[in-house]
Amino acid sequence: MKSIPSEKPEKLSDTEDKQFPTLSEKEARLFQLANWSLGILAFLLFLSALTYVYYPDIGAHIFDASLKTLPPFATLILGYYFASKNS
Predict the structure, then answer these.
(1) Which end of the chain is more exposed for a tag (fewer CB within 10 A), N or C?
(2) How far apart are CA 59 and CA 68, in angstroms?
(3) What CA–CA distance (Å, rounded) separates 86 from 23?
(4) Structural domain range at position 86
(5) Count of structural domains, the chain
């Protein structure tokens, strides 16, 4: 029985080995903050939708108010995190 020689693939250079750029500590913290903030806003929108389902008379006002106020906050958070530093 012949054994097949195991050929190791060529090692990629340091620049080819990294597919994605690494984040600095500050960028990673900003990304985590944006992630948590958007998650909290989504949770508040979900709670207002549940309020609308279970209490339609009062929940309609709460849901309408959250639909008007929460998306601008999400836009501000995303704009702050993904804004270009050159402009």
Answers:
(1) N
(2) 14
(3) 18
(4) 37-87
(5) 1
